[in-house]
Structures are given as structure tokens and as C-alpha cells.
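User: Some background: our group keeps a shared notebook of sequences we're curious about, and every so often someone picks one and asks for a predicted structure to add to the entry. Today it's my turn. The entry only has the sequence so far, pasted here. Could you supply the structure so I can complete it?
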Amino acid sequence: MLFNKVIKSVLLLPLINICRSTVPSTKLINVCNMHYLSQKDAAALDQDLFNEYKFSVDQLMELAGLSVAAAVAKTFPPSTHNSALIICGPGNNGGDGLVAARHMTLFGYNVSVHYPKRTPKPLYENLLHQCEQFGVHILEKLPQPNELHNNYKVLVDALFGFSFKPPVREELKPALDALIEGGLPVCSVDIPSGWDVEKGPISEKSLKPALLISLSAPKQCAKREFIDKAKHFLGGRFLPPGIITKYNLKLPEYPNQDQIVEIC
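Assistant: Of course. Here's the predicted structure to add to the notebook entry:
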């Protein structure tokens, strides 16, 4: 009897250690049993944050951008991927990318930003100015996709967010092509650019990110069946309890004081 118990303990120990090493600070069911937002609910949740809870756009953008930078650094640290190109779109997703660029310089990256369609509003102009003051290189013209590896080790996709609806505008197609054809690991902010927010990639040629950073709560396209083997982090540790209840969100526990948590 004692011998059987010892054998059982020895056999179970590696399995226990695997679970602990994979999900060190949250229960597995909490990390994997997620609620995924539809495009409509994602937009409504944002409006609730602005209107009911009085968050400002720049406040949320700062929190989101910091989460993006932290997730990129966790997955592709500057010790191995020291040069990054962040491709920013004209909306809030692009603003998140500009914030992430500033934080990534502080984390030790050499950062460039390509911002092909700029938003003529003080918030975005100030974010771009801050990038310049922090030493971020503003890249006016993209190299050919097959030349990106000469200067960069990782790409950050901050082109389109959850409000995107196809088709892609002509002036933004080169930016999306660079992400898809660049041959470098791509870190997508909230939604992989060009994807359907609820149905995932629209074709075999769609962007295949190596990392997805969901913000606030994962959208339906973030399900494992769509993102395949990509790493997946949740960022944006700022949701009020009322929002979590209203949208029936099942979110993992963030470890310690971290702003991001890896999810299944």
C-alpha cells in the first residue's frame, strides 16, 4: 500500500509542476474559461467607460499602451529583439501604439514608428511629439516587406482596432502588407489587423500574429481556434466592478501588481 502511494506521488509530481509552471499565479479554469466580447459589446463597453465611469480617452490609452509594451517585452525582450517597428493606424489603436512606443524605449528597445494616416487632433499630435522627444524614429516611408528584417527584430501591429470593417483603405494597404509579408514576429494590439472582429481571419493570406494583446477583455476573434499558436496576453487592469458584472465578464486574476496576464 505504501509503495503504491509513493509511486502515485512520483507520477503526479511532474504533472503538478507542469501546471504550476504554466499558470503560476492563477487557477487554470480562470485563465482558460474566458468570455469573449462581440464587436457591438466591445464598443458599448468603451462608451460605458467614457460616459458612466468618466474615463478619458488619453487615460485609457496610456494604460493600454503600457500593457502592450509590457506584453511585447515579456514575449520578445530587448535582449533578443532590441529593434522594433510599430505600425500605427489613424484611430485609438494607433494611439495605443504611440504610447507603447514611448514605453518600449524606456524598456531598452530601439523603436521606430510608421504612422501613415495621422489623426489631426491634439491628443494624437501630443503623443507623436512625445515619441520624438523620447528618441523614437518616425519612419515616413516603409521599406519593402522583404527588407524589414535588415533593421528590425519585431513588429507591433497597432493599425486597426475593434471598430474595423473591411475593405482596407488603399493608403493603408502597404502598412498591412508589411505586417503580413515582413517575415518578422508580429504583436497585434487587441485585434489582428484585417481580421473580422468576431469571425477571425478572413482568408488564408490574413495576418498571423505571434502575439495578441487583448485590451479590457478579449474579443471573439481572440479564441484559440482563430489565433492558433500565438501567445495571448490580456492587458488593461482598469475595469470597474460594475462593467465586469454588466457584461458578464470572466477575467483571470492579474498576478501581483502586473498590468498583464497570459491567457490560454
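Suggested note for the entry: Residues 64 and 75 are 17 Å apart (CA to CA). The radius of gyration is 19 Å.
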